[in-house]
Design a protein that fits this description.
single chain; alpha/beta; 11 helices; 8 strands; 46% helix; binds pyridoxine-5'-phosphate
């Protein structure tokens, strides 16, 4: 049977607009304006990571962006009581649970859903009652996918960092790994997302995987925006993932 092909969506991660603002602890550039510009340019969702150390996105960004945008807000967060409370109060459309280490530059590796499956299962009803869709940021591994399903997650987001950093045959191997994982997750009824380290080149091969519904991309879009403006950077990426106007 042919795989169902999902229309591809782009979630724009604007953490690094906040990184720039926090470099001076002022109010420029406006993170909320970046969210609105990305939305106008075709982003299907806005993603922010409220880290425990608040190194970029701040609590007020969450509130402001939640109020301002019309597309779903995806809040990336650690699975810890403080952040759970914050999410339940803010009620973003979606959350993505990620592992967090204080000293890391960015999210390194996926969540070990197997190790915390029972804890996740216990927390799911409160997210469900708040109308929040829950995704788990995991490596594209069979055991992790089964644990995500058993824990009651709505979606998985595959960590694409290993794919993004590999080259040649090693990268093709990683793509195959992601494609197989996407097939398995979709067959279990999980929504399949992907993100981390994706850019205007390496996105092309992943955009052809039928089961992936959404890509969450930040650093490469914000980097390109320095030269082209954010709207153009978002439109260019959207074109690559939807295959329209290539
Ligand atoms: N998805 C998740 C869960 C992430 O933690 C990140 C990084 O914040 C991204 C996607 C975006 O990664 P990048 O900035 O490399 O595009």
């Amino acid at each position: 049977m042919a795989a169902r092909i999902f229309p591809k969506k782009l979630g724009v991660n604007i953490d690094h607009v906040a990184t720039l603002r926090q470099a001076r602890r002022g109010c420029e550039p406006s993170v909320c304006r970046a969210a609105l510009e990305a939305e106008s340019a075709g982003a299907d969702g806005i993603t922010i990571h409220l880290r425990e150390d608040r190194r970029h996105i701040q609590d007020f960004d969450l509130k402001e962006i939640r109020r301002a945008i019309h597309v779903p807000l995806n809040l990336e967060m650690a699975f810890v009581p403080e952040m759970i409370e914050t999410a339940l109060a803010a009620k973003p459309g979606k959350i993505c649970l990620v592992p967090e280490r204080r000293r890391e530059l960015t999210t390194e590796g996926g969540l070990d859903a197997r190790a915390i499956e029972q804890k996740l299962k216990k927390a799911m009803p409160s997210f469900r009652r708040a109308g929040i869709e829950v995704s788990l940021f995991i490596d594209p591994d069979t055991a992790q996918i089964h644990s995500a399903k058993c824990a009651g997650a709505d979606a998985v987001e595959f960590h694409t960092g290993t794919y993004a950093h590999a080259r040649g045959g090693a990268q093709r191997k990683q793509r195959l790994r992601i494609a197989r994982a996407a097939q398995l997750a979709a067959s279990l009824g999980l929504k399949v997302n992907a993100g981390h380290g994706l850019d205007y080149e390496n996105i092309k091969a992943l955009a052809r995987i039928p089961q992936i519904e959404e890509f969450n991309i930040g650093h490469s879009i914000v980097s390109r925006a320095v030269f082209t403006g954010l709207a153009r950077a978002v439109r260019d990426m959207k074109r690559l993932i939807t295959g329209r106007g290539r």
